[in-house]
Amino acid sequence: HDPSGGERATRLLMEIALNESNQKLRKFAIYSLGRGEWSEQKFRFEGDDQIVPILQKLALSSVEREIASSAIDALNHIANHHEDPRIRAALMEIGINSPSRDVRQKAASRIGEMAEKEGVKILPDLVQLFEANDDRELKKHIISVISKMENPEAQDHVIKIAGTAQHPELRKRAVYVIGQRGSEVGVVALGGVYAAEQSDDVKNQILHSLNETKHRSGLVQLMEIARTDPNLKMRMKAVNYLGRNKDPDAQRFLEELLK
């Protein structure tokens, strides 16, 4: 079998990507592998089915983060033009097993970006990444990635994390992104999260999120906390937020509270 010029070029690019000592040349070869010619959702040249495994290997094994990052970008570019289940599987493997936190974060972000095309089907992958990683900073990053997905299932999962995650920092991040999204469902759910929360730091974040929302349910919950919370410090913080609120109901509530 006499390989075509395109096949020879692809083989050469793979060899450079794997073994070249010059980093710039390796990055260019990786970039080129992610931008092969396409025909009917398949690589044009024979042998190109090796590209996804090679890019996965580079992302997992390279001690140079720029090389690993370039490999993830190449996988992502392929995913944007070609439906190949191996790409999601490769990104999952990288997100779980890369020795670099930055690389694992990038893999999680790329999986999240796939949600624009594949929607809720991506959520189980991100949940698996969240549960498989012990790195707290990576978990916080994954919470942010999930929160950007435009479907109710993803938002429900963030609410679940806000109420059940073992570490307060993770619950606080989930509360923060719920507040950033500002959906009424999320704001209402924060009331239940607050009632069960033990950490004052997380409760402070909930109060802040309730204060920032435009939904009336946030104001109602702040008033309830100011009236009934057994923690005097939290009641005072709620009162402080209400004192800065120009809503007439907030002002009337404070006047009643002072009587």
Describe the protein's architecture and organization.
The protein has 259 residues and is mostly helical. Helix content is 76%, strand content 2%. It has helices spanning 5-19, 23-33, 51-61, 65-81, 85-97, 101-118, 123-132, 136-147, 152-164, 168-181, 184-196, 200-212, 216-228, 232-243, 248-258; strands at 38-39, 42-43. A hairpin with a 2-residue loop joins strand 1 (38-39) and strand 2. The chain is elongated. The termini are far apart.
Please list the strands of the largest sheet in the order they lie side by side: 1-2
* Oligomeric state of this protein: single chain
**Total strand segments:** 2
Strand count, sense and barrel status of the largest sheet are: 2 strands, antiparallel
Give the secondary structure arrangement, pairings included.
Elements: H1 5-19, H2 23-33, E1 38-39, E2 42-43, H3 51-61, H4 65-81, H5 85-97, H6 101-118, H7 123-132, H8 136-147, H9 152-164, H10 168-181, H11 184-196, H12 200-212, H13 216-228, H14 232-243, H15 248-258
Antiparallel strand pairs: 1-2
